[in-house]
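Structure tokens please, single chain.
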Amino acid sequence: MARKPITPENAYLRLTTLCARCEQAEGDLRKKLRDWMVSPADADVIIERLKQERYLDNQRYARAYCRDKLRFNGWGRIKISYMLKGKGIEQEFIDAALDEIDEEQYLAILDEALVAKAKTLSSKSKEQMQASLLRFAASRGFEGNVIYRAVSQVISHCDED
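Here you go.
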């Protein structure tokens, strides 16, 4: 059963409701418009109207996404940047959002995640634990130089215990 296209005005109203609830990326909204079979010309008009009425702002979205993914998912700068690029966010907005990250909070989140992970690896040798923690932190999108320092600290604390 094929879906019927919706009118541009209904699409606009749906998107304003969606944007009023939480921040949205332009790329995600364009995908929804394609799914709803709104013509590309109408989609451009709708997106421009959403921007003019301040429902849609990629810079604001990048800041909110960065804050939330760091705080709630424990992601590092690399993964956040990669995911924002995938959503079509401009690099300048990504860089500005990443610059707003508080370095102390960033390192604390990494340390907390590594300590929790280390507790699950207690039966492994020091080398195996270090390799596992390095892979874990890299998969979360943290930078290499930050990872090595944090892993070294966690392993030295494990040795003391």
